[in-house]
Amino acid sequence: MEALINFQTMIATSQAWRSPTRRLLDEATAAAEAMTLAKRSAKSRSNVFLVAGDCHPQTIAVVKTRAEPLGLTVKVGFVPDLMKEGDYFGVLAQYPSTTGLIHDMRPFAEQAHANGALFCVAADLLALTLLEAPGAWGADIVVGNSQRFGVPFGFGGPHAAFMGCKDAFKRSMPGRLVGVSVDSQGKPAYRLTLQTREQHIRREKATSNICTAQVLLAVMASMYAVYHGPAGLTRIASACTA
């Protein structure tokens, strides 16, 4: 559990938030969870979710698949043009894009908020050691995966995905959170906390049914980060850009 605390802290720091972060199955399903979290939390009553065309193709495919039985409409394309069309409850963009482009998304996040919608970002965890954190420029929900942090390729998986959000939405997040409490002797003790109880008892009415925690992979990623430290991770990211 201490290693998972390290993982949560690492993710929250990379996103410029103090709020808790969760471990999920993979980046694509985490993006689908971001869509449903945005639907539950946004002020907009629209059923339209906008997805940037330069998101990873597997992410777009999973988001579309998840949206269909929920009665949500997913529009994929150039985000500025899609946002001009009108009503929507959320936006998903890739940071950097699947082709490696880095967009300035601050104005689009502001526009989404003005529309009562939430701005979601699928981010590269290693790139965030060099780029401005999404939370600093207005992102509401950030997802991604930790495969870059010492997890073997494995023909595409497995790896631990992550999700972070603004503090206002934390009780509606899927998954499990490790926290620090106090035991019967007054000593610090790790425990699962803010775990949505309805995942176990409400079935189809649950916040999520695909919130696999990927603990082993999260522990690997967190220990990789501990071993290299902030300076080492930044050096690795800089080498990747060369």
Short description:
The protein is α/β, with parallel strands linked by helices and 242 residues long.
Search tags:
alpha/beta; 20% strand; 9 strands; 7 helices; 7-stranded mixed sheet; globular; Aspartate Aminotransferase, domain 2; 242 residues; two-stranded antiparallel ribbon; 36% helix
Question: If you had to describe this structure to a student in words, what would you say it looks like?
Answer:
The protein has 242 residues and is α/β, with parallel strands linked by helices. It has seven helices and nine strands, in the order αβαβαβαβαβββββαα. The protein is 36% helix and 20% strand. β8 (177-182) and β9 form a beta hairpin. α1 (2-14) runs parallel beside α7 and α2 (27-41) packs across α3. Strands 1-7-6-5-4-2-3 form a seven-stranded mixed sheet, with helices on both faces. The protein has one domain (2-241): Aspartate Aminotransferase, domain 2. It has helices at residues 2-14, 27-41, 57-70, 79-84, 106-114, 198-201, 215-241, and strands spanning 21-24, 48-52, 73-77, 90-95, 118-124, 141-145, 161-165, 177-182, 188-193. The mean pLDDT is 86.
CATH class value = Alpha Beta
Write the CATH homologous superfamily. Type I PLP-dependent aspartate aminotransferase-like (Major domain)
How would you sum up the major sheet? 7 strands, mixed
Please tell me the CATH architecture by its name. Answer: 3-Layer(aba) Sandwich
Q: How would the global form be characterised?
A: globular
**Helix share bin:** 25-40%
Structural class: alpha/beta
Strand content: 15-25%
| Lateral strand order in the biggest sheet | 1-7-6-5-4-2-3
Distance between the termini: 36 Å
- Please count the helical segments: 7
Radius of gyration: 17 Å
Number of domains: 1
